[in-house]
Amino acid sequence: MSDQEVILVAENARFIVSGYAFSKREDGFISILNLRHPDCGMVVNENSEIIETNMDPIEQQIVLGLCRKNLQFMED
Q1: pLDDT greater than 70 at residue 76
Q2: Which of 31, 42, 57, 64 is the most exposed place for a label (fewest CB within 10 A)?
Q3: 42-73 in b/e burial notation, b at 16+ Cβ within 10 A?
Q4: Interatomic CA distance for residues 47 and 9, integer angstroms
Q5: Integer Cα distance of 43 and 50 in angstroms
Q6: What range defines the domain where residue 28 resides?
Q7: 3-state secondary structure of 41
Q8: Distance CA 1, CA 63 (A)
Q9: How many structural domains does the chain have?
Q10: Beta bridge partners of residue 22, listed in sequence order
């Protein structure tokens, strides 16, 4: 992912917490991108359940915690 693509993700994110950009997708899932390491991402459903990820288990738990604490900011 190019720097310009990372900037675009950050600009269009609903919110950014601890370097992770949280974006709502058209299908209702939440896309989470590590802005410092854009090769690491996660997709979760509205219940913060992992749909897919390439993050290691420790990072998964950190990101899920951030997601659960900030999920109210994803609402329209």
Answers
A1: no
A2: 57
A3: bebeeeeeeeebebeeebbeebbebbeeeeee
A4: 22
A5: 6
A6: 3-74
A7: strand
A8: 20
A9: 1
A10: 15, 32
The model's pTM is 0.90
DSSP three-state, residue 43: strand
- The CA angle 44-29-20, to the nearest 5 degrees, is 60
For 1-52, the pLDDT digits (tens) are 888 999 999 999 999 999 999 999 999 999 999 999 999 999 999 888 999 9
Q: How far apart are CA 1 and CA 38, in angstroms?
A: 7
Amino acid at 23: S
Contact 42, 50 (CB under 8 A): yes
| Token duo for residue 45 | 């459903």
Q: Which two tokens stand for residue 48?
A: 């913060």
